[in-house]
Design a protein that fits this description.
Length: about 100
């Protein structure tokens, strides 16, 4: 006959092993992430100049206004962001933060 202490040890060990497996799965790199060297190539093709006549209010990532010195990126979907903001975003996600269109 198995004692209650032994059963609790087995249940605890199973919980710890399961938690470790879950953490390992969560730490895996997302295959959708663009490699850092490729991000610059993608963004260089999408750089636009600030135009005060266009309706460019604020960057929806940082919520700051655009100005003449801002480096601005226009994605294929037409949404506009500061270069620094979208660079940080693309390192983690591969879609537009506004409409979720794929960035390529």
């Amino acid at each position: 006959m198995v004692g209650i202490g032994f059963v609790l040890i087995i249940i605890g060990a199973t919980y710890i092993i399961g938690t470790y497996k879950l953490i390992r799965i969560m730490k895996r790199r997302d295959p959708e992430i663009i490699p850092p060297g490729t991000i610059n190539v993608v963004l260089n093709n999408k750089t636009v100049h600030f135009n005060p006549l266009l309706n460019m209010d604020v960057c929806s990532i940082c919520l700051s206004d655009y100005d003449i010195s801002s480096l601005i990126i226009r994605l294929d979907c037409g949404h506009i962001f500061h270069r620094e903001c979208i660079y940080k975003w693309i390192r983690k996600k591969r879609h537009c933060p506004y409409c979720r269109c794929q960035i390529s």
